[in-house]
Amino acid sequence: MSRSTVQESASYVYGIMPGDVEVDPEATGVGDPPAKIRLVRHGDIAALTSEIALDRPLGRPEDLFAHQRLLDEAAAEVPVLPLRFGAVVTDDEAVVEELLAPNHDAFRDALDDLEGRTEYIVKGRYVESVVIGEVLAENPEAARLRDDIRGKPEEATWDARIRLGELLGEGVAARRDADTEEIVGALAPLSAAVAVREPTHEQDAVHAAFLIETDRLEEFERAVEEFGERWAERVTVRLLGPLAPYDFVTTPYPEEG
Amino acid sequence: MTIVQPSAGGGGGGSSSGLADVIDTILDKGLVIDAFVRVSLVGIELLTIDVRVVVASVDTYLRFAEAANRLDLAQTGGKGLPEVVQDMTQGVGKAKTKGIAQGALDAAGDKLHDFLGDEEPEEEPRRRRRREG
Question: Per residue in A179-216, pLDDT tens?
């Protein structure tokens, strides 16, 4: 097949898994309408792919959900190496030739290491009024600025608001560091690996990924639940999972040939 | 505490928190295809809404300041700050869920609008969120 001609479609790649799996014939992925999922095998491993049209951009919320749902559902059953959203290769032959064949042993070993382990994410969000009250109570400059802006329009108090917001942001960040250290310190001994994520919201109290052995899952869930109860007044704790190990796959930098 | 099963996000469609969770996870985590595939790589245009917040930015400073302003206006009587904080804590503790705590904040926002009289209600601070840079 000529790769120099203009292509209308290509292969979207979701992730890599052991070759001895079957794909649900009803499974669908990204695209509109959602494309049928294919399993491309090579040796002991396989890639999940689907056909993707190249004449339109990719990234509707439905596409994002489809990518993660497929990988997470697979990860609940078998080890999976998830690819970052948006991986597109000319066709399934190229998936074999350039992705699976040259990296076969490394992928197989990585999948072996993931046997019986899945990712869970712990997200904690501060209760805004409580955390801001805490910072105001301990920071006299912030409390004074709060009095200065009280009931005044934003335009008239811009500088004071920026300074107040900065102080509050610093106070919340200090709490985030301390709370993250506390919960990660308690959960790390129950986990095979931990990856603390960057906060993606200014009221984040904790944002971290944990690689959990199936036989320690109950213990881990109980520990997270204890934090949820103990922190209930100031932090809303959520546990997301099981997920594919997005935070625990590392991209090698193959030697230039 | 909520345990979110992954399939809940997709089946229910795009609730904003579900979308934020997905964006946090699949846009910059996972294996990068470019590290493996060179010849047959196809560049496709990615148009994704990034709802993530730059945590230390003018937007977040203004939101924090406005939240402090609202907190103060929710105060009744001439209480000192420690008592206010305690009240808020108890209120949220009783509510137990974020939804109800959020309701309390919304109510405080209503008071702000009353206080400002006939001025246009301010734009909801959360709406101002946008990614910079």
Answer: 999 999 999 999 999 999 999 999 999 999 999 999 99
Question: CA of B2, closest CA in chain A: separation in Å?
Answer: 5
Instruction: Give A-chain residues touching B82 at CB under 8 angstroms.
Output: 137
Q: Which of B7, B39, B40 would best serve as a mutation to test chain A binding (most A beta carbons within 10 A)? A: B40
Contact A68 B19 (CB under 8 A): no
Tell me: do A173 and A65 sit in the same domain: no
From the list A165, A249, A251, which residue is nearest B62 (CB)?
A165
CB–CB contact B31 A69 (8 Å): no
Cβ-based contacts of B35 with chain A (< 8 Å): 251-254
Using the 3D structure, point to which of A79, A97, A115 is the last residue of a domain: A115
**CB contact (8 A) between residue A82 and residue B26:** yes
Q: What is the pLDDT of residues A41-54, one digit of tens each?
A: 999 999 999 999 99
- For the complex shown, is ipTM > 0.90? no
The verdict on A212 and A90 lying in the same domain is no
Query: What confidence score (pLDDT) does residue B56 get?
Result: 85
Residues A127 and A241 in one domain: yes
Domain residue limits, chain B: 1-52, 58-128
Q: Secondary structure of chain A in the HEC alphabet?
A: CCCCCCCCEEEEEEEEEECCCCCCCCCECCCCCCCECEEEEECCEEEEEEEEECCCCECCHHHHHHHHHHHHHHHCCCCCEEECCCCEECCHHHHHHHHHCCCHHHHHHHHHHHCCEEEEEEEEEECHHHHHHHHHHHCHHHHHHHHHHCCCCHHHHHHHHHHHHHHHHHHHHHHHHHHHHHHHHHHHHHCCEEEECCCCCCCEEEEEEEEEEHHHHHHHHHHHHHHHHHCCCCEEEEEEEEECCHHHCCCCCCCCC
B107 — contact with chain A (CB < 8 Å)?
Answer: no
